[in-house]
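Hi support team,

I've been running sequence recovery on a batch of backbones for a student project. Most finish fine, but this one hangs at about 90% for roughly twenty minutes before it completes. I'm not sure whether the input is malformed or the queue is just slow. I've pasted the structure tokens below so you can try to reproduce it. Let me know if you need the job ID as well.

Thanks,
M.K.
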């Protein structure tokens, strides 16, 4: 696939807490790859996502057990010529993303969806696709990557 002619679609999900919502699966269908930014909850969540596309997942603070021990705390994902740094708790970031050459930092934990650009780096929290918490929306994100730009979109799930 020529990345310059066809954008790469990255599905981004976080804080599922063991819940695989059909609406989340529908929203991520068609992704070229999927990133799970932690608090997976159960390995079956990753199995369901792997049925859609290759998955990169990091461990969140609720992920316990032998299956979760295999998940890294952080991951650097190369996609479409961009470096995406993934971790669960953004406050634990211990490096300078612009200096490291990252195009994006992808994180979860707060359950609050957000898209922000700082110093040329995209900061993306897809929110939570798991059990609803407080009055926060249930969301995932889509990230379209071209050779020259990252186009993020938050998707509110109808649950």
């Amino acid at each position: 696939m020529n990345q310059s002619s066809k954008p790469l679609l990255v599905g981004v999900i976080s804080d599922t807490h063991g819940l695989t919502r059909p609406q989340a699966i529908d929203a991520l269908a068609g992704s070229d790859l999927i990133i799970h930014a932690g608090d997976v909850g159960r390995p079956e969540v990753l199995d369901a996502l792997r049925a859609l596309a290759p998955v990169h997942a990091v461990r969140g603070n609720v992920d316990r057990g032998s299956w979760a021990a295999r998940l890294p705390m952080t991951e650097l994902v190369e996609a479409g010529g961009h470096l995406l740094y993934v971790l669960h708790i953004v406050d634990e970031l211990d490096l300078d993303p612009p200096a490291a050459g990252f195009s994006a930092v992808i994180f979860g934990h707060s359950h609050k969806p957000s898209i922000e650009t700082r110093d040329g780096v995209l900061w993306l929290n897809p929110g939570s696709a798991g059990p609803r918490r407080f009055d926060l929306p249930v969301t995932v994100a889509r990230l379209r990557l071209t050779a020259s730009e990252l186009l993020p979109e938050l998707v509110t799930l109808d649950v």
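--
Follow-up from support: It reproduced on our side and the slowdown came from queue contention, not your input. The chain has a mean pLDDT of 95. No action needed from you.
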